[in-house]
Automatic annotation (TrEMBL):
InterPro entries: Homeodomain-like_sf (IPR009057), Myb_dom (IPR017930), Myb_TF_plants (IPR015495), SANT/Myb (IPR001005)
Species annotation: Dorcoceras hygrometricum
One GO CC term, this protein: nucleus
Role played: Transcription factor.
This protein's record includes keyword Metal-binding: no
PANTHER family recorded: MYB FAMILY TRANSCRIPTION FACTOR, OS07G0484700 PROTEIN
GO MF annotation terms: DNA binding
UniProt protein name: Myb-related protein 306-like
Source domain of life: Eukaryota
Biased composition regions of type Basic and acidic residues, renumbered to the chain: 120-131
Length: 316
DNA sequence: AAAGTAACCAACCGCCTCTGT
DNA sequence: CACAGAGGCGGTTGGTTACTT
């Protein structure tokens, strides 16, 4: 017999998450921090299994997530990393700070696999086989540059940490921990943004489900009203949750532009990041691991010997 | 306009790994 | 060292949306 399910299947809700559930989850994580997922359903009253909560957080509600519209650069990164690492989506995602493993996996399965298949078909017809070798070399250089940039970012982060112990490292800026009171509000605002986006779709799709207080002619107002209306719902905890969310939305989030947020990410661009605790392995370990993986394909030497060339920078 | 098909993506399932006891 | 439980991960599914006929 297999292991019992991670949680009771009786009374556990499945399927798409509602905005209310998202708000409850985000609010809880904002207070308690991510982790100890087992206790999340019982502490929040969510009728979801712990895994579902974790997945929802990591793939959708976590701050800093960018969805859809993969850039050409990201696309190529994924292709190359997939070539190096295989279907280790979490590892690949760690090199694309804005993206989740699920998102990358989906994108690979729906877009890139076909695209590559198509390209391969064309290449087979072509007699210029060396062109692919050249582009591969370029990618190796690019990755080397990525690694260099990541190293720099990590060094900077560590230097900052050392010089000013009160300054949280980048990894902490984007994590919602139990010490979240000291974490800049932008951390949570991004989640609020995700929910706001969700609410936007939700209000469009099901105007009846949240009509109380929703002014459909004004989107931002409708979102706020929606929060308020839920704040006056039967559940008192929900009320405080929504009020808090609203305050994040209205005061803090508006102060933090997306570009600023992006800039923070860019500072640590291509630095491998983990999803859950946002704790970063020492880069050298990851680097080594990556190279070890690549080594059997005879690429280690290429990577190690490649110096960072200015000519490769323009590729980004 | 309706039906059929393809594409997309959120979420689930089950196995694996890690960690605490 | 062995075991159990929790979290992490990759494969897969199913519902929804977009597109085509």
């Amino acid at each position: 017999m297999g292991r019992p399910p991670c949680c009771d299947t009786v009374g556990v809700k499945k399927g798409p998450w509602t905005p209310e559930e998202d708000i409850i989850l985000v609010s809880y994580i904002q207070e308690q921090g991510a982790g100890n997922w087992r206790s999340v359903p019982s502490n929040t009253g969510l009728l979801r299994c712990s895994k579902s909560c974790r997945l929802r957080w990591t793939n959708y509600l976590r701050p800093g997530i960018k969805r859809g519209n993969f850039t050409e650069h990201e696309e190529k990164m994924i292709i190359h990393l997939q070539e190096l690492l295989g279907n280790r989506w979490a590892a690949i995602a760690s090199y694309l700070p804005h993206r989740t493993d699920n998102d990358i996996k989906n994108y690979w399965n729906t877009h890139l696999k076909k695209k590559l298949h198509k390209q391969k078909g064309q290449e087979d017809l072509s007699t210029h086989d060396h062109s692919s070798t050249i582009s591969k070399g370029q990618w190796e250089k690019r990755l080397q540059t990525d690694i260099h940039m990541a190293k720099q970012a990590l060094c900077e982060a560590l230097c900052i940490e050392k010089s000013d112990p009160k300054t949280p490292p980048d990894s902490e800026i984007y994590s919602v921990t139990s010490q979240c009171k000291t974490v800049p509000s932008s951390t949570y605002a991004s989640s609020a943004e995700n929910i706001a986006r969700l609410l936007e779709n939700w209000t469009k799709k099901s105007p009846n489900s949240c009509q109380a207080g929703v002014n459909e002619s004004n989107h931002s107002a409708s979102l706020n009203n929606h929060h308020l209306s839920m704040g006056s719902s039967s559940s008192p905890s929900e009320g405080t949750i929504c009020t808090r969310l609203l305050s994040f939305n209205s005061s803090n989030y508006s102060d933090i532009s997306q570009s600023e947020e992006d800039a923070k990410f860019d500072a640590a661009n291509f630095t491998p990041q983990t999803h859950e605790q946002e704790t970063q392995m020492p880069f050298t370990m990851l680097e080594k691991w990556l190279f070890d993986d690549a080594a059997p394909h005879g690429q280690e030497g290429d990577f190690m010997d490649l110096a960072l060339e200015e000519t490769t920078v323009h590729l980004f």
